[in-house]
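New to this. Explain the following:
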Amino acid sequence: MMRCLRPLLLLMILCTDLVWAVPAADPSLPASTSPVTAAPDETPPPLVDEESNHPVVDRIVAIVNTHIITQSELDDRTAMITSQLRRQGVQLPPQDVLKRQILDKMIMDEVQLQYAQDSGIKVDDTQLDQAMARLAEQNKLPLSTFRAEVEKEGLTWPKFREEIRNEIILSQIREREVENRVFVSDNEVNAELSKESSQGSASPEEYDIAHILVTVPENASQAIIQQRQAKIQEALTQLDNGMPFAQVAAAYSEAQDALSGGDLGWRPRSRLPSLFVDAVASLQPGQHSAILRSPNGFHILQLLNRRTPNAIANIKQYHVRQILVKLGPDTNPKDAEAKINALYGRVQSGEDFAKLATLNSEDESRNRGGDLGWISEGSTFPQFEKVIKGIKPGETSAPFQTPMGWHLVQVLEVRQANDNEDAKRMAARQGLRARKADEAYDEWLRQLRDQAFVDIRIDDH
């Protein structure tokens, strides 16, 4: 549950939206002494609030439960995102609109981070160091060079590390609260395959799309719905007048990807709601849809491109066993690592992997001797996939870590999917699961935001 507001702190916050630096009186000066005017070459006096005549150190632009977001934090984040958008070639909306969008994103991140803290989800410095090393490796740079490149972009290394720490936490909270609870039944897979077959597509199209979302709260009044509709209509008018879609998305969209131009990337048909599929089916690349209405709110889509994938024929599948030692809120990370290392030693000494999995693995696969069945490329954690691709059938990996915990894996067999029925079912299941996870995450975020105390004060200044 969201942490309760501390009455005293809340009272202090509500009484002021400025953080003051009140200089102490200098006892060496008489009470009647007038301040000395600074010489032109001296440091200029600090900014002074007109009403109280106190120097302003910072302003509060939002309160999220017991946490405040200050003007300087907003300015820092705006500078960073502005730099990123310019590098991506995204045309920027007006500065005041951009700042409001960024503040909304900061509020949503803060609500989730507070939930994660209350739930005991954290990323320690060792895990963060490993993540930074992986980032450097992915960029094909030594860590020292990667750090220098980050600092060239105007970011301090400690601040960048904290940004990455928060991103990992947000990923873990989504996985725990949403993705691990998504289930796709065989009937849903059958229905999806039947729909694809009825449309005469052996290899269904994939769409590269962007979107603009204006949310409508649950049980919203007619007045609120009309207000939301007016906002999406204004966005559509801007698009019809020739404003680039990415710029309109950055200015109007309330989706998590608004500041990346609303880009959803490539999505298979099965990962998109029928409403979206029907809307983009008649569009040519570069065109945008009319306003669409869904339970979440109002949408506008842009089709960036479409393709018919031929990827199934090239997919490899791996038959894998695992032993998992989970990392939970009450788990000592060192104890978990020691346990997996001890199990690895026992496997290396010749003990039966399946028996050890049955007795020690902390997931439901223990009932099958750790057997996870066939895993297709692209269907699991990147770290997990990298490991299983790097070992041969019959071999066992060294211990490695993913957001789920510590793993040992043993590859039993490898096969080519060859466009068979199993591969088609796997692709359909993955698409459906991703779509349901997206929808569940959006709904979870909306409920979390509704439960939070949020006071936005940026418009007061």
Observations:
- The two ends are 32 Å apart (CA to CA).
